[in-house]
Amino acid sequence: FKMAAGQENLPGNRDQGEGRVMDLSRQGLTRIALPAGSAPVTLILDRNNLSRVDNLQAQQQIQQLSVAGNRIVRMGGVAQLPHLRVLNLPSNSIGNIEGLKQLQGLEWLNLAGNSIKDLSPLSSCLGLSHIDVSDNSVSSIADLSRLTGLKTLLLHGNILTTLRSVPSNL
Question: What is the C-alpha to C-alpha distance for residues 41 and 146, in angstroms, rounded to an integer?
């Protein structure tokens, strides 16, 4: 499987062995059903008609997941991916990010262009170094002070009134 255009820049997408990157973009998928025997490390499901991230409990090896430009409302299924490092979910309809709480190893997160209001579930994702929550409905920033490795926090296009709680390391 080949990476979709633009996906080669996701962290870690270089030098992936054949079969380790599975690109099911633009397939008109309405639910996630991977071929039997597949074990991708990088899974790309961009521009389908998916409304949920689920059916991935047997895919514990996934480290990078991209589900951009779908109709995702809930993302609780990502909690079943304990080795996830990169999560790319821009341009969906996500309002709740509770499913991220369990992802301690998550390093890179793109949730731009959704309907997110509350960032507090991110406070337990201690490995995050990059967060993009631009073009959402965030009105205040949760306490992200425990994210000591955070280097990038993109917030443009939200309804913020103060940046008082932005971590001092940014």
Answer: 28
Q: What is the dihedral of CA 1, 70, 68, 126, to 10 degrees?
A: -120
The torsion of the CA quartet 130, 134, 136, 139, rounded to 10 degrees, works out to: 90
Instruction: Give the DSSP H or E segment for 110.
Output: strand 108-110
| 130: helix, strand or coil | strand
Rounded distance, CA 60 to CA 35, Å? Answer: 15
Where is 154: in which H helix or E strand? strand 152-154
Per DSSP, the three-state class of 42 is strand
Q: Which two tokens stand for residue 165?
A: 């709680």
Quote the tokens at residue 3: 């990476």
Q: What is the DSSP string of 66-92?
A: E-TTS---B-GGGGG-TT--EEE--SS
* Model pLDDT for residues 48-81, shown as the tens digit of each residue: 999 999 989 899 999 999 999 999 998 888 999 9
Side by side, which strands form the sheet with 108-110?
21-23, 42-44, 64-66, 86-88, 108-110, 130-132, 152-154
Q: How far apart are CA 4 and CA 116, in angstroms?
A: 26
Q: Is the pTM of this model over 0.70?
A: yes
